[in-house]
Q: What sequence folds into this?
């Protein structure tokens, strides 16, 4: 019996009693574990499934991807923000190159200075200057590619590639800073415009959302607001029209200036045609003088018809240019014929006067149209004000509308009778 009791006790020690409703009161509250667990349906033994995309392998894959993307972001940040320190101290692995370049440039400058001083003190002839020129050609191999400049304006020291890079970097930085300032300014302007727009919108909403004592929309306030808006739009429209008119006027002037080249008809002829015009004038003057002499000789010594034949042949020979013109009596004949230049000038002036007359007529028609449009708009506004009248209760005034319609019918009848 004792051995059987011992066995039972050892079993109880090895296998503790499970928590049940029966022995709940026997176990202390501190021994009970309170853990939050995800709800799992009874038909599933584990949380998640491959079909739903929540399997164990899928979770592990997501975790690995997250860590990998995190590393990539860190590397990108490190690359995108390099610490570029442009100072006078050169990098260690390139220091010997920069120092050698500076030394070479200094030696070249010193050599050139010595040559200039020697040239100023003892100007050598061309034959003796040949050895010096060979030495300069040997020393100035690096400066052959550069453009030649006068000695006075020549720089004391050339810039190294490091200094050039530094200047380029500073120029880009200033350009970027300027762009940043402009962007900030534009952003502030946009924000200010948006604030004003929202403020106006709120004011409009407050006006239109007013109610009467009975809780109905206040139509009188709404009508006043709309009338005010119409008046503002009309004033804005007139200003806009004025600006548009001025702009179009400028465009027309520019178009005229382009389409009508400045032709100055003066006594000074164009250089490339001057000899032709002068020769034509000279020929016409000679013809006129010849005719004058013939008329005087005819008046003093009137010859018979037989003797007049040789003179007539000479006149026919000289007056070849005037055969096409209609013959007039000698007393009314012009002293000098008009040159082609003078004729062109007169034609140009005639066209200009015609154009000016057309312009005046167009301006007059435009003013008449504007006046008619103004009267039409005024009448339309008066009609709107009559028809938009309200009663004390805020309803349309039908009596006023009927009176207006009767008046209109009577006016139409009177016009028809006339």
A:
């Amino acid at each position: 019996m004792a051995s059987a009791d011992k066995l039972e006790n050892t079993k109880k020690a090895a296998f503790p009693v499970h928590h049940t409703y029966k022995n709940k009161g026997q176990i202390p509250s501190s021994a009970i574990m309170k853990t939050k667990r995800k709800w799992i349906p009874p038909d599933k033994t584990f949380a998640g499934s491959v079909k739903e995309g929540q399997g164990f392998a899928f979770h592990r894959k997501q975790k690995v991807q997250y860590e990998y993307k995190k590393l990539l972001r860190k590397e990108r940040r490190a690359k995108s923000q390099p610490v570029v320190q442009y100072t006078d101290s050169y990098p260690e692995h390139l220091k010997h190159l920069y120092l050698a370049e500076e030394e070479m440039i200094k030696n070249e400058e010193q050599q050139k200075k010595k040559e200039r001083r020697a040239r100023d003190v003892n100007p050598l002839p061309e034959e003796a200057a040949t050895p010096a020129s060979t030495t300069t050609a040997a020393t100035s191999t690096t400066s052959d590619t550069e453009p030649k400049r006068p000695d006075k304006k020549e720089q004391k020291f050339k810039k190294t590639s490091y200094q050039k890079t530094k200047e380029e970097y500073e120029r880009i930085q200033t350009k970027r800073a300027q762009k940043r300032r402009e962007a900030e300014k534009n952003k502030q302007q946009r924000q200010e415009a948006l604030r004003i727009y929202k403020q106006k919108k709120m004011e409009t909403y407050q006006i239109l959302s007013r109610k009467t004592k009975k809780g109905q929309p206040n139509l009188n306030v709404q009508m006043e607001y709309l009338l005010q808006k119409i008046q503002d739009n009309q004033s804005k429209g007139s200003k806009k029209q004025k600006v548009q008119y001025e702009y179009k006027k400028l465009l027309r002037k520019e178009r005229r200036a382009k389409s009508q080249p400045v032709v100055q008809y003066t006594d000074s002829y164009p250089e490339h045609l001057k000899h032709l015009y002068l020769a034509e004038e000279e020929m016409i003057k000679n013809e006129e003088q010849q005719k004058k002499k013939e008329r005087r000789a005819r008046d003093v010594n009137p010859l018979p018809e037989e003797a007049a034949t040789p003179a007539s042949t000479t006149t026919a020979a000289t007056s070849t240019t005037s055969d096409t013109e209609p013959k007039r009596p000698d007393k009314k004949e012009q002293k000098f014929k008009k040159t082609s230049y003078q004729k062109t000038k007169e034609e140009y002036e005639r066209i200009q006067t015609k154009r000016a007359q057309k312009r005046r007529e167009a301006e007059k028609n435009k003013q008449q149209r504007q006046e008619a449009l103004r009267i039409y708009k005024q009448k339309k506004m008066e009609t709107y004000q009559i028809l938009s009248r309200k009663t004390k209760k805020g309803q349309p005034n039908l009596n006023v509308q009927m009176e207006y319609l009767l008046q209109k019918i009577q006016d139409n009848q009177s016009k028809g009778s006339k």
